[in-house]
Amino acid sequence: MSVLDAVKARGATRLANRLLAELRQMFGFALVREIVATDPTGGIEKKHVGGQEQERERVLSEADIRALPTKLADANLLKATLHAVWVMLATLARIGELTRARRADIDLATGTWVIPADHSRTRRNIRYI
């Protein structure tokens, strides 16, 4: 809790929640591999750490978007990651929606991509043209 409390004290509540999730995953793996005897994150809930997250209102400015090609080129990303960034920017698709995309969901002839409801966070089909 002291590690999570330190992050929360900085005002980084979203990061504290993410850190809790990562710690849970790490200790879950360690339990399965018998590296640890117990999971110290077992009784910790989001409400004890960062609490309910507020939806963010981050918007890229025109200057941000114009600077993006140079920043991405300088980042030395894998080509697939670079393409994923541009697809997500163009469509506002989430990373999970993009990584679960199948060839069958994309119609090159009509220029459409349908994200099936079971791949969508909103649980509705999403159609991009």
Summarize the structure.
This protein has helices spanning 2-9, 13-32, 62-74, 79-91, 95-99, and strands at 106-107, 112-115, 126-128. The protein has 129 residues and is mainly α. GO terms for molecular function: DNA binding.
Which tags fit this structure?
DNA-binding, 7% strand, mainly alpha, 129 residues, 2 domains, DNA integration, Integrase_recombinase_N, DNA recombination, 5 helices, Prophage integrase IntA
Which value, in Å, is the CA radius of gyration? 19 Å
Helix count, DSSP H or I runs of 4 or more residues: 5
The residue-averaged pLDDT reads: 89
N-C termini distance: 47 Å
What order do the strands of the largest sheet run in, or round the barrel if closed? 1-2-3
Please describe the topology of this protein:
Layout: H1 2-9, H2 13-32, H3 62-74, H4 79-91, H5 95-99, E1 106-107, E2 112-115, E3 126-128
Antiparallel strand pairs: 1-2, 2-3
Account of the protein in words:
With 129 residues, this protein is mainly alpha-helical. It is built from five helices and three strands, in the order H-H-H-H-H-E-E-E. The chain has helices spanning 2-9, 13-32, 62-74, 79-91, 95-99; strands spanning 106-107, 112-115, 126-128. It has a three-stranded antiparallel beta sheet with strand order 1-2-3, with no helix packed on it. A hairpin with a 4-residue loop joins strand 1 and strand 2. Helix 1 (2-9) runs antiparallel to helix 2. The radius of gyration is 19 Å and the shape is extended. The termini are far apart.
